[in-house]
Write a structure and sequence with these properties.
It contains 14 helices and 15 strands. It is an alpha/beta fold. It has two domains: 183 residues, Rossmann fold (3-Layer(aba) Sandwich), CATH 3.40.50.720; 133 residues, N-(1-d-carboxylethyl)-l-norvaline Dehydrogenase, domain 2, CATH 1.10.1040. The strands form four sheets. Strands 5-2-1-6-9-10-14 form a seven-stranded mixed sheet, with helices on both faces. A four-stranded mixed sheet has the order 4-3-12-11. Strand 3 and strand 4 form a beta hairpin. It binds NADPH dihydro-nicotinamide-adenine-dinucleotide phosphate (NDP) and ketopantoate (KPL). The site of NADPH dihydro-nicotinamide-adenine-dinucleotide phosphate has 30 residues, from helix 1, helix 2, helix 3 and helix 11. It is an enzyme of class 1 (oxidoreductase). Pfam families: ApbA, ApbA_C. Its EC number is 1.1.1.169. GO terms for molecular function: 2-dehydropantoate 2-reductase activity. Keywords: Oxidoreductase.
């Protein structure tokens, strides 16, 4: 199989580099200055053991690459870029048909909406719960501080089940050094991760202080209430920490990552953040099932405004948002 990594940023490049170093065939798909540097200089990939430059082939899109029937598309864009990536890749020609008809897509993304979007265009979708600390702040450079493994990638067929392709992908990810448990209930793990990612916006907007922590706790309580009202199951904290501590993935002191993936979007000034698919997912569920979600709605609105305005991460004040919520 060849892995075509669509969105070779923090997560995508970490997966691509690890598969490449394990001898798997990989193409990194990127855009803008990041693509230029990948093509001209290669990927600079830093892990606790070393920093190396990897000459992995890079492409800008389907016009730039002859797709093969053994390709697996790994979608690793932020969720707000999923629709654009699908519009470009689903109609691409391969093996006498389209990519949508022939190829598997692996969603290595946070949130729970990407798989639904992909299933509209592709017949075979694999969902991944991504526990992987990685940083991408400069074109061509990705830092992956996970130790001893780069991360835990729990995978399964979407919406549920396991098949031979999922097993094969799991084996390749394990060869790349990941802890890659295959589960038939992968979305239960992804909904639990979604609850954890409700803190991304607060981290990006305010950094970490007691007021931000209080907002994150309240966002999570709303999230749990919304999932319960919707009848959506998620794995317990105990199940998750038992799984992660069994595998011992941590980071090396002095080599920790910067902020969350949302924090990194603000730091890079990309103009958009993933919040509509994280806090916004809870707001959507709350509105559908009659559960109030004021904290998630406020974080969603403020993070979108901050991204559009090019605000620096950590430039807001959590205390102000708490006061505004109290006055509502
Ligand atoms: N970073 C982390 O440690 C973690 C991230 N995640 C999740 O993983 C997913 C990816 O996040 P992350 O790796 O941080 O994101 P990044 O922003 O680092 O990487 C995504 C990359 O995709 C590029 N891109 C977007 N659309 C396209 C396209 N159509 N064609 C080619 N390239 C494209 C972006 O370009 P541009 O910069 O120009 O927008 C960017 O380089 C998200 O769902 C995130 O929540 C999960 C766990 C941890
Ligand atoms: C949990 C966290 C914050 C770190 O892996 C993450 O998923 C992200 O950065 O989006």
């Amino acid at each position: 199989m060849r892995y075509v990594i669509i969105g070779a940023g923090a997560v995508g490049a970490t997966i691509g580099a690890s598969l490449h170093e394990a001898g798997r065939d990989v193409v990194l798909v990127a855009r803008g200055e990041h693509l230029r540097v990948l093509r001209e200089d290669g990927l600079t990939f830093a892990t606790p053991s070393s920093t190396r430059v990897l000459p992995i082939p890079a492409a800008g899109g389907p016009d730039d690459l002859v797709l093969r029937p053994d390709d697996v598309l790994v979608l690793a864009t932020k969720s707000q870029d999923t629709a654009g990536a699908l519009a470009a890749w689903a109609p691409a020609t391969v093996d006498g048909g389209t990519a949508g008809e022939r190829l598997t897509v692996v969603c290595a993304q946070n949130g729970v909406d990407n798989e639904r979007q992909v299933l509209r265009r592709f017949g075979h979708v694999v969902a991944v719960t991504v526990w992987l600390p990685a940083t991408h702040l400069r074109p061509g450079v990705v830092v992956a501080p996970g130790d001893p493994a780069p991360g835990v990638l729990t995978l399964g067929r979407y919406p549920s089940g396991v098949d031979a392709t999922v097993e094969l992908i799991g084996t390749d990810l394990a060869a790349g050094g990941f802890v890659a448990p295959v589960r038939d209930d992968v979305m239960r793990w992804k909904y639990a991760k979604l609850l954890g990612n409700l803190g991304n916006a607060a981290d990006a907007l305010f950094g970490r202080d007691d007021d931000a922590a209080s907002l994150v706790r309240r966002a999570r309580q709303e999230g749990e209430a919304a999932l319960e009202a919707a009848g959506i199951p998620w794995t317990s904290d105990e199940e998750q920490s038992a799984m992660r501590s069994a595998f011992g993935v941590g980071t090396v002191p002095g080599f920790e990552r910067g902020g969350s993936s949302t924090w990194q979007s603000l730091a890079r000034g990309t103009g958009s953040v993933e919040v509509d698919y994280l806090n916004g997912e809870i707001v959507l569920l709350g509105r559908t099932h009659g559960v109030p979600t004021p904290v998630n709605a406020a974080l969603q609105a403020r993070a979108a405004v901050a991204a559009a305005a090019g605000a620096a991460p950590g430039s807001g004040r959590a205390a102000e948002l708490l006061a505004a919520l109290a006055a509502q």
